[in-house]
């Protein structure tokens, strides 16, 4: 009698990609210049993030979001100010 040999090889290496994506969210890249976003600006109303200078330059040529092509109404610039009135 031949015994059916079942080999169950557990390969648990699929969880690495999820970790990489989570780390990316903390320090996201600008889709225009592909560098880490330095001076964060948001497009309104779709709220995609870019460097302020990148999206400002882009909006000069095309008033649509480079990511989703939604018309840009305003560019929201997040300024870190230590001073408060
Ligand atoms: Zn940029
Ligand atoms: Zn967008």
Automatic annotation (TrEMBL):
It is an enzyme of class 2 (transferase). Keywords: Metal-binding, Transcription, Transcription regulation, Transferase, Zinc, Zinc-finger. Signal peptide: none annotated. Residues 30-69 form the RING-type domain. It catalyses: S-ubiquitinyl-[E2 ubiquitin-conjugating enzyme]-L-cysteine + [acceptor protein]-L-lysine = [E2 ubiquitin-conjugating enzyme]-L-cysteine + N(6)-ubiquitinyl-[acceptor protein]-L-lysine. One of its GO terms (molecular function) is zinc ion binding. One of its GO terms (biological process) is protein polyubiquitination. SMART domains: RING. The keyword GTP-binding does not apply. Its EC number is 2.3.2.27. InterPro entries: Znf_RING, Znf_RING/FYVE/PHD, Znf_RING_CS. PANTHER family: E3 UBIQUITIN-PROTEIN LIGASE TOPORS (PTHR46077), TOP1 BINDING ARGININE_SERINE RICH PROTEIN, E3 UBIQUITIN LIGASE (PTHR46077:SF1). This is RING-type E3 ubiquitin transferase. It comes from Amazona aestiva.
């Amino acid at each position: 009698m031949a015994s059916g040999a079942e080999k169950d090889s557990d390969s648990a290496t699929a969880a690495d990609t999820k970790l990489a994506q989570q780390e990316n969210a903390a320090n996201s890249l600008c889709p225009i210049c592909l560098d880490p976003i330095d001076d964060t600006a948001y497009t309104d109303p779709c709220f995609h993030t870019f460097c302020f200078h990148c999206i400002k330059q882009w909006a000069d040529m095309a008033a649509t979001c480079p990511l989703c092509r939604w018309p840009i109404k305003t560019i929201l610039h997040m300024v870190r100010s230590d001073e408060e009135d």
